[in-house]
Amino acid sequence: MSIMGRGEKAQKAQSAQSRPEEDAAEVKAHKSPFTRPREQTYGELINNPQVRRWAQRLAVALAVGAILTLIVDLQVGFTFAVIIVIADSVRRARMNSSVDAWRKSSAAERRTERQLRGLEKSGWRILHARAVPRDDEGASDGKIDHLVIGPSGVYAIDSEKWDKRLPVRTLSHRKLFHGPFNKKERLDEACWEAGQASRLLSAEVGFEVPVQPSVAIYGPTIPWKVMTVRDVDVYSGGRARSYLRRRPKILTETDVQRIARAAERSLPPVYTKD
């Protein structure tokens, strides 16, 4: 072994001895990928909302099942327990929404939101509950329930729940009535919201972005598929997805993504988490 080789070996040994703490820290920082993750404590599991929901669901199902088992028999008790679990799961799924403020009160918005989820897999972008700024200070005077951006264009959809006992009719594509009530103000509001969104988006992207206003109505029977009244497309809420998909393509994927980013900047969410 050469003198230079022995010197290098000694220097390495000295360096290894002088840094035991650094080496230990490095070993600690680079843990094996096969290290088992920390298991949740009992308290963390109890505080998990999903675990608590399932615990409550199973507790109710077991209680009802036990009572029916005593009154009738085991098969009936077990059957009803399973039905309760399934029914509660379906009910909670329908109440679920990406917008917290819609989970308790706004059934119409939630129903349209569920329809639009399927479009996201095809490259559509959907923003829910977006505020429409009215002035330079950002004060909002309107809300677009669903801003939809896709190959066929940009749409401002408002979801409405109306009394199903009153008929819906139009007059010369200029007036919309729900029973005796003229819905002119509601249509004008939808047009104004879409116009404001178009102005803001066009300024952001540098080219004109038309935004088509529409109203999806739940409750009463709508005697047409899609009808344009005062420049607003009006249709039954259950047709929201088909209304969008059947239109010709006018935007590229790049256009869709660019407009969506502009919408996120210029149209803030109405509801914010505290």
Report on this structure:
There is one protein chain. The protein is built from nine helices and nine strands. It has helices spanning 3-18, 20-29, 42-47, 49-71, 74-95, 107-120, 184-205, 240-245, 253-266; strands at residues 125-133, 140-150, 153-161, 168-171, 175-178, 181-182, 211-218, 226-229, 232-236. Helix content is 49%, strand content 20%. By secondary structure, the protein is an alpha+beta fold.
Number of helical segments? Answer: 9
The radius of gyration over CA amounts to 29 Å
How would a textbook summarize the main sheet? 6 strands, mixed
Mean pLDDT: 78
Elements, N to C (H/E): HHHHHHEEEEEEHEEEHH
Order of strands across the main sheet: 1-2-3-7-9-8
Instruction: Please bin the fraction of helical residues.
Output: 40-55%
Beta-strand residue fraction: 15-25%
Quaternary structure state of the chains depicted: single chain
Quick recap of the structure?
By secondary structure, the chain is α+β, with helices and mostly antiparallel strands. The protein is built from 9 helices and 9 strands.
